[in-house]
Design brief:
The chain is of the alpha+beta class. It is 37% helix and 10% strand.
């Protein structure tokens, strides 16, 4: 077989031939064949093929005898498309301002354009930016996500108590808690309590303030007043 310019003879002629009906058109043709074969019973046809009467009658109005092209899906594109109404100068002003402020939205850009004497609506600014993005002229900035998750700080002075840790002798676990005492209006005292879980031994303290210095002072008193070595301290009483 002779090849001319890399194209087999007859290829262009075959390419111009109309394509066969689509799968959807052949299925719709089966509707009307069944409809004619069963006494033009539309409800029976709809139940057999599982379609609604509205769908069946809509295609029945379109169907023209044996012209299968009438059973093909039509394009839903509108006949008259809305044409851009913004001038080139306005588009350039929006583009320049957006390039200078890549993270600003259409509303803020609209206000700045008004200050520059460009009368334009926020929706028009949005449409201009959308067309520029679709053409690849306007690039979106890289996202700058800020994590909202809580960051856990490293606590070098304390460690979380392991679940398997238990008090088996005196001094294994001391529970430390504070309480506000208000004997008179405007008078507040800080009451410190240290409770040994195993021996039930308590050490109490009171101060006029709850600061790092007073807490440190109470811990020193705790280690001196406990009749046994303190191995672990848990802040906050368990309910």
């Amino acid at each position: 077989m002779r090849i001319i310019s890399g194209i087999a003879p007859g290829t262009l002629r075959l390419a111009k031939l109309p394509l066969g009906p689509s799968k959807e058109a052949r299925q719709r043709l089966k509707w009307f064949d069944y409809y004619e074969a069963h006494g033009q019973n539309a409800l029976l046809t709809c139940r057999y093929f599982g379609i609604s009467p509205q769908t069946f009658y809509r295609w029945k109005r379109r169907y023209e005898g044996r012209h299968l092209a009438s059973l093909e899906d039509h394009s839903h594109r509108p006949r008259h498309l809305r044409q851009p109404t913004a001038s080139i100068a306005t588009i350039e002003a929006v583009f320049k301002l957006r390039e200078e402020n890549p993270r600003w939205g259409k509303n803020k850009l609209c206000e700045l354009l008004h200050e520059q004497g460009v009368l334009i609506s926020a929706s028009m600014v949005g449409r201009i930016m959308r067309r520029l993005k679709d053409r690849g002229v306007l690039k979106e900035p890289a996202p700058n996500y800020v994590s909202a998750s809580k960051r856990h700080r490293i606590r070098p002075y304390a460690q979380r108590k392991p679940k398997e840790y238990g008090a088996r002798q005196a001094g294994d676990l001391i529970e430390l808690d504070t309480l506000d005492i208000r004997p008179l209006p405007g008078v507040v005292y800080k009451h410190f309590t240290a409770h040994d879980v195993f021996s039930r031994w308590n050490v109490l303290g009171i101060s006029t303030s709850s600061t790092a210095a007073t807490a440190s002072s109470f811990l020193n008193a705790l280690t001196q007043r406990m009749p046994f070595p303190v191995k672990a301290i848990q802040v906050g009483r368990r309910p």
